[in-house]
């Protein structure tokens, strides 16, 4: 006898709830019983909708990555130049209300780097989504190699500044460095 089919609308609702749970609690809380209890469902429900814990983690990371990219892209607005896009990304990512989300992001990034074959999709997109977006935001007449170099610097600098901010909480110092970087991009 085959099991009941997965209700994909319910799966999406559960997935968003699991992502929110993970943002609040972190990766260390990723086990069936605590997640199920936190969501008010059974562990069996989670297994039915996501398969294994590793499969659930993969889709959680995918949803988190897509959610973060979409929210930051919306902040930048349509057709920004690279300086405006970088400023919008920094403003959203450094917002104190986003700290938990980005802590989870960096924890997930580290986990993916430890098991690249398991998290290949996450690793394939975590840089390329931004690389593509920032290259498209280049100033007219900028050659592709320069656009790629600039996009790489923007991604690395913003992620480095964000890691520093999350690790130290020294908002004044990090914001000053970010402003220096962003002002240089605008020139």
From TrEMBL:
The keyword Transcription applies. It comes from the Bacteria. Residues 31-50 bind DNA. InterPro entries: Homeodomain-like_sf (IPR009057), HTH_TetR (IPR001647), Tet_transcr_reg_TetR-rel_C_sf (IPR036271). Pfam families: TetR_N (PF00440). Gene3D superfamilies: Tetracycline Repressor, domain 2. This is TetR family transcriptional regulator. Keywords: DNA-binding, Transcription, Transcription regulation. Residues 8-68 form the HTH tetR-type domain. SUPFAM superfamilies: Homeodomain-like, Tetracyclin repressor-like, C-terminal domain. It comes from Nocardia alba. GO terms for molecular function: DNA binding. Signal peptide: none annotated.
């Amino acid at each position: 006898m085959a099991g009941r089919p997965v209700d994909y609308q319910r799966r999406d609702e559960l997935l968003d709830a699991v992502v929110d749970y993970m943002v609040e609690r972190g990766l260390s809380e990723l086990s069936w019983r605590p997640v199920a209890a936190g969501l008010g469902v059974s562990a069996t429900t989670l297994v039915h909708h996501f398969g294994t814990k590793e499969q659930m983690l993969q889709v959680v990371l995918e949803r988190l990555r897509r959610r973060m990219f979409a929210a930051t892209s919306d902040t930048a607005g349509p057709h920004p130049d690279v300086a405006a896009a970088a400023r919008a990304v920094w403003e959203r990512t450094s917002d104190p209300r986003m700290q938990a989300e980005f802590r989870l992001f960096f924890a997930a990034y580290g986990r993916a780097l430890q098991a690249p074959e398991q998290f290949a999709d996450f690793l394939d997109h975590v840089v390329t989504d931004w690389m593509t977006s920032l290259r498209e935001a280049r100033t007219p007449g900028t050659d592709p190699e320069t656009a790629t170099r600039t996009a790489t610097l923007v991604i690395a600098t913003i992620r480095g500044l964000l890691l520093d901010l999350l690790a130290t909480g020294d908002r004044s110092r990090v914001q000053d460095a970010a402003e220096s970087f962003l002002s240089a991009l605008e020139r």
